[in-house]
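Hey, resending since the last one bounced:
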Amino acid sequence: MTLPEFYSREERKQAMQQSKRRKTNIILNTLIVIVIALICIVAYSIFFAGNDNAKPAPKEKKAAVTKTASSGHETTSSHTSKKTAGKDNKKSTRKVEKSNESNVKEVITDSSWKPVGTGQTGGHVYSASSTSLDWKEKLKALSYATGIPEDNMTVWFLEHGATTDEAIGTVSAKNSDTTYRVYLTWVDGKGWKPTKMYELIENDKK
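The structure tokens again:
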């Protein structure tokens, strides 16, 4: 900066000092702006870039949840398979065959059938009385073989077979056209046991 000649030495000195201060202020202001800009850049990197890096975490959590859910599904599937296998094993004792006999749709047997128990003592005495213990135990065996509850079962006919240690009952569920003929055998001390069952085409005891 060149000052006119008419300025005194003192005035020139003050003017130069002011010019120097102005330049210093400009430099300081420029540095402040640069520092602020750097602070903004660092802050952006910390907050925004940091959040971007943290975003995959929910995916990992989701993956873990999915894996856990999958594991639970496998456990459930395994449990279901075991349960189904158990049912299949139970059903495997039941045998259903077509029949050539007239009025017989299917012949059903089940190797798991057992005597239903008895309250009779002193030997078995066959009874055709609907109030007798022997009759009630025959109804219990008929219900056991067919799966029809006694209070929902209609007994169309109940008679002894070739001997009084054999019985034949024709039954159906109330309000059902499906009729069964069940063959029972007496087991001493254990009660009546189903031996075979026919599903009839028509109820021939109506």
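The helical segments are 9-54, 56-91, 133-146.

Sorry for the duplicate.
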